[in-house]
Every structure is written in structure tokens, then in C-alpha cells.
Amino acid sequence: MITAIGRTTLLALTYLGELGILLGNTISAMFAAPIRWKLALHQIIETGARSQIVVAVTGAFTGAVFAAQIFFQFHRFGMDSAVGSVASLALFRELGPTLTALMVAGRVGAAIAAEIGTMKVTEQVDALRSFGVSPIDYLVVPRSIAMMVSMPLLVAEACAFGILASYLIAVPMLGVAEAPYLRNLTFYTHGSDIAIATIKGFVFAVIIVSVSCHEGLETSNGAAGVGRAPTRAVVISSLAILGMNLILTFALNIIFPSGQ
User: Fold this and answer.
1) pLDDT by residue (tens digit) across 121-135?
2) How many angstroms separate the CA atoms of 226 and 219, rounded?
3) Which of 246, 176, 189, 211 is nearest to 15 (CA)?
4) Mean pLDDT of 209-227
5) How far apart are the C-alpha atoms of 189 and 90, rounded to whole Å?
6) Torsion of CA 141, 142, 145, 148, to 10 degrees
7) pLDDT tens-place string over residues 64-105
8) How far apart are CA 72 and CA 74, in angstroms?
9) CA–CA separation, 112 and 211 (whole Å)
10) In this structure, are residues 47 and 146 in contact, taking their beta carbons and an 8 Å threshold?
11) How far is the C-alpha of 258 from the C-alpha of 260, rounded, in Å?
12) pLDDT (0 to 100) of residue 85
């Protein structure tokens, strides 16, 4: 058992080191090498624009279900008007960024790992190196820029649709008074809540693109390896997002206390 724990720990530390090296090389390439903006814009369309429907539906149903559950519990204490504020805080501080990141990891992260993995096993990555083109500059940097730009916007979209859906569930369907609902919603939602959602979205974007590109670049064993790369990318990204969310929750609530 001790050997297994030690082996697992070493593998995890090695993996984190590889991700750190990839992230460092990516950041260096963003400032040292010319950015291929055409590729970056194409990736923004693939990453952001084509993920909007999935993110909007996820945010809407999350906000609707959460508002219904809050109403069912708070109605017993006569706190119906608090449904909007609680749903808004939950969406901005936790549910919006986390669920958006998980959906994007499943849709975009898997695609990145599969695409780069296919290029790796078909020796297209080696062909780039033979022409003097860095795979980091050509493959990783455009996807990193696209993910970092798109994720905060997708998080904002998910939160907006979640708040709208919570309003439609609470006011027209469940009969919560509109005026106190909106008053509490606007009074208890602050700029710090939006800042937390944005920061979490950006950090989750870095995790998704780093893990996905790493899995793609490390793909081997032909078609079998290409099949495993997207699965590993989604699983590792999802677990990293959930773990990092806990860390960010404590850190950001110290920096941005609730109610400010």
C-alpha cells in the first residue's frame, strides 16, 4: 500500500511538473513569438461561439432548479423574496463558473486533445518541428488565448441565463412578489460576486487548455492513444476544476468578502 501511494504521488507530481512546464512555455511564447491571430480567432469561434447553446441551457436549468429548491425550503419561513438573491450569489460564486467549466471541458477539452493527439500520432507535430515551427506557438498558444477569452464570457452568459430562469420560475410560476424579489436580487448582488465568477472562469480556462493540450501532445500508440487522450483530458480537467474550485472559494472569499 505504501508503495502504491508513493508511486501515485510521484506520478501526480510529475504530471503537475509537466503541466507547469507547458504553461510556462506557453506564456513565454505569447510574449516572445508572434501570435497567429487568425488561428486564435478561429479557435475563439470553436471554443466560445459554438459553446453558447450548451452553456446557456446549462445555466438556465441550473438557475431554474436552484430557484425552485430555494423556494420550497424558504417558503416555510416566509422568506420567498430571498430566492432571487440566494440564486444570484450561488450562480456567480459557485454554480455558474464550475458547471460552465465542466461543460466546456467535456465539449472543447476533449476536442483539443483528440485533434492534437491525431496530429501527434500522424507525425504532423514532427513535421511542424522539421519546418522550424514550434508546436507550442502553432497549436497551444492560439487555443490558450481562445480559451482565456471565451471562458469568462461563457461564465457570464451562464449566470445571466440562470438568473433569468430563476426569475421565471419564482415570480410567474411560484408566485413570489416581483418587487421584493428584484429588490433583494439587486441589493445583495455586488461587483465582488461578478469578479469571483470572472476569476474562476479564467483559472478554469487555464486548467482546461493546459491539460487538454498536454494530453494531445503526449499521445502515443496510434488510434488507441487518440481514443484515450480525450477521456483523460476530460477526467483530469474535471477533477482539477473541482479541486481548484475549493481552493479558490476560500481564497476569493477572503479577498472579496460577501456583501462588498
Assistant:
1) 998 998 998 888 899
2) 6
3) 211
4) 90
5) 10
6) -100
7) 999 999 999 998 888 888 999 999 999 999 999 999 999 999
8) 6
9) 10
10) yes
11) 6
12) 92
The label of the residue with cell 479577498 reads 255
What integer is the mean pLDDT of 236-259?
91
Are residues 158 and 47 in contact, defined by beta-carbon separation less than 8 angstroms? no
Nearest Cα residue to 116 out of 130, 131, 126: 126
d(CA 241, CA 58): 17
Q: Which three cell numbers stand for residue 117?
A: 493527439
Show me where the domains of the chain are located: 37-255
181 touches 81 (CB < 8 A): yes
Mean pLDDT across 24-48: 91
Mean pLDDT, residues 178-204 taken together: 93
In degrees and rounded to multiples of 5, residue 36 shows phi and psi of -85, 90
Cα 43 from chain centroid (whole Å): 16
Residues of the chain with pLDDT > 90: what percent?
78
The per-residue b/e assignment along 141-174, b for 16 or more CB within 10 angstroms, e otherwise, is: bbbbbbbbbbbbbbbbbbbbbbbebbbebbbeee
| C-alpha cell at position 14 | 510529475
Are 89 and 188 in contact by the 8 Å Cβ rule? The answer is: yes
Q: Which residues contact 223 (CB under 8 A, 6 or more apart)?
A: 121
